[in-house]
Amino acid sequence: MQPLPSPLSSLAVAVQLGGVHAGPEQTLTHVAGLDQDHPGRLVFSTKSQGGQGCVLVSQTVPGTHIVVPDPKGAFIQLLEQVFGDGRPPAGRHPSAIAPDGIPASVHLGPHAVVEASAVLHEGVVIGAGAIIGAGCQIGAGTWIHPKVVLYPGVVVGKDCQIHAGSVLGGPGFGLHPGPNGLSPIPHIGRLVLGNGVHVGANCTVDRAFISETTLGDGVMLDNQVHVGHNCRIGDGSIIAAQTGLSGSVTLDKGVILAGQVGVVDHVHIGAQAQVGAGSGVMRDVPAGRAVLGSPADLRVRTLRRWAGWLKG
Fold first, then answer.
1. DSSP element (H, E) containing 75
2. Nearest alpha-carbon partner for 207 in 254, 174, 239
3. Distance CA 154, CA 168 (A)
4. CA proximity to 146, closest of 167, 132, 130
5. How much of the chain is in helix, strand and coil states, percent to nearest 5?
6. Residue 309 domain flag
7. DSSP code string of 197-222
8. Structure confidence by residue, pLDDT tens digits, 259-268
9. For residue 308, is it within any domain?
10. Which has the closest alpha carbon to 107: 146, 80, 133?
11. Same domain, yes or no, for 27 and 144?
């Protein structure tokens, strides 16, 4: 349960959300979960459950409530309007190091470092201790959180979020055998992120060998995701925590990879395909296919196989 910055009338909330108010007007002092019953709470229910305070629901329930088509979506909308996103104001901390000419709307946190040839557009936030390498380009409204590292030449689109501790554009893990053993391959390509990309905390996304590693518009990476060199991730794809992509993996538009998925190099996963948690993907996955297991196979076939093992 979290207190609201100031009390709200349930009638005012209904108007703000475009919902239909029913029951006595309530003074709302907190946002809460369904298990936190409180007379001043605002809560949402997807199961048409009532209670004290005021409940956002999709159909009528006992007590004070507001009927909206999408209760959770309306609740999120209200949270964004009331609490904001916590974005710090524009300005440069005295300890930040950055070239002249950066827009006045940019925020530079304590000990942030921006190399001289980097380009920051309007409204960019660079968090404390973040390092923006030479030749990087960061689009308008993008928020780089504390201790993020962008290696030289990384391109980040508009309205992206790069969370704390992530490292973008480091060299890929390429080795070449020679007379003196294995030698690292120089990676002279770059990393390009589209608009509205979300990168969680402590992720690593490698630059390409020669061309580009790319994350399309609206790509969402959870925490602790690794994307290898030369990967191409299509618009709107979602990758959950602790998933790793080897080099030169291609994900088409709208792919979903659940947690702890491993994908071997040069695999292609088609549009809207889904890979279940803990799977090992060792061959191409056709568009729209749902796979599971290691090695990954049709989800329904894997579940039947597992059911047989349990019966045995």
1. helix 71-83
2. 174
3. 7
4. 130
5. 10, 35, 55
6. no
7. -EE-TT-EEEPPSSSEEEE-TT-EE-
8. 999 999 999 9
9. no
10. 146
11. no
Residues of the chain below pLDDT 50? none
Final residue belonging to a domain, choices 52, 83, 114? 83
The single residue of 21, 145, 163, 229 carrying the catalytic annotation is 229
**Together in a domain, 245 and 206:** yes
| Residues 62 and 99 both lie in one domain | no
Active site residue 111: no
Structure-block tokens of residue 178: 């020679």
pLDDT at position 47: 81
Instruction: Tell whether the torsion through CA atoms of 28, 32, 33 and 39 is positive or negative.
Output: negative
The residue out of 83, 114, 143 marking a domain boundary is 83
pLDDT in tens, 152-177: 999 999 999 999 999 999 999 999 99
Q: Are residues 152 and 271 in the same domain?
A: yes
- Give the SS3 label for residue 12: helix
Asked whether residue 79 falls in the same domain as residue 125, the answer is no
Amino acid 312: pLDDT: 60
Distances (CA, A) of 243 to 204, 238, 258, 281: 11, 11, 8, 11
Report the CATH number that the domain containing residue 9 is assigned in CATH: 3.40.1390.10
Candidates 249, 176, 242, 239; CA nearest to 206 is 249
- CATH value at residue 145: 2.160.10.10
Cα 244 from Cα 236, distance rounded (Å): 18
| Domain total in the chain | 2
Domain limits at 69? 2-83
